[in-house]
Amino acid sequence: ILNVEQSPQSLHVQEGDSTNFTCSFPSSNFYALHWYRWETAKSPEALFVMTLNGDEKKKGRISATLNTKEGYSYLYIKGSQPEDSATYLCASQGGKLIFGQGTELSVKP
Amino acid sequence: NAGVTQTPKFRILKIGQSMTLQCAQDMNHNYMYWYRQDPGMGLKLIYYSVGAGITDKGEVPNGYNVSRSTTEDFPLRLELAAPSQTSVYFCASSYSGSEQYFGPGTRLTVT
Predict the structure, then answer these.
(1) Distances (CA, A) of B76 to B19, B46, B111
(2) Which long-range contacts does B63-71 make (Cβ < 8 Å, 24+ apart)?
């Protein structure tokens, strides 16, 4: 079983702050790294799926990078807004998709 | 497209009862998954399927069974419900293991 770790567990920032989270995963038997955004009382929604070492993806103010050799991915949010408040999940896909415990982001106006 | 649908939304079971959680998708996805979400524990994979007629265990399969007779449907069966199965259950689907699309969830309480 893969062990996927996310840090920090929770984060409180002010509107306009930029922030980033880390996802660590075993680099052996790696196929892809997923990022999901999960708002309270809703279902997780896919942000990015990355497969190649050095991959960088961007969606609006959110971007992510991938280092498969050392087994980590960063998610960046530029100029956080209150609507960015959610739990951000990463998941490592080898034979199966294993989720981390998530980083809970709270953005105060 | 309705996407991924789950029924029921909520259910209360007594210990020892059985029930089936329904999941359907209309996106012609070959992969389907069942997860449970426990507080502070993230999402744990119960079972998954890579196509009709094929199912495999995830991290926490004990106490559950699945079947995949069609591409669209992936029901999850709980036999002899136990309090430890109180959780929120999410079904998801994807095309060949790419990004997953999640259903709205089923909140189950076993008392």
Answers:
(1) 8, 9, 19
(2) B64/B34, B66/B34, B68/B32, B71/B28, B71/B29, B71/B30
Sequence letter at residue A95: G
The answer to whether the CB of B89 falls within 8 A of the CB of B77 is: no
Burial of B50 (0-12, 13-18, 19+ CB in 10 A): middle
- Residue B45: which of A43, A89, A97 has the nearest Cβ? A97
Within 8 A of B33 by CB-CB distance, chain A residues are 97
- Judged by DSSP in three states, A42 sits in coil
Strand bridging mode B19-25 / B76-78: antiparallel
- Interface contact B36, partner A, CB < 8 A: no
How does pLDDT run along chain A (109 residues), one tens digit per residue? Answer: 458 999 999 999 999 999 999 999 988 888 999 999 999 889 999 999 999 999 999 999 999 999 999 999 999 999 999 999 999 999 998 877 889 999 999 999 9
Please provide the average confidence, as pLDDT, over all residues in chain B.
94
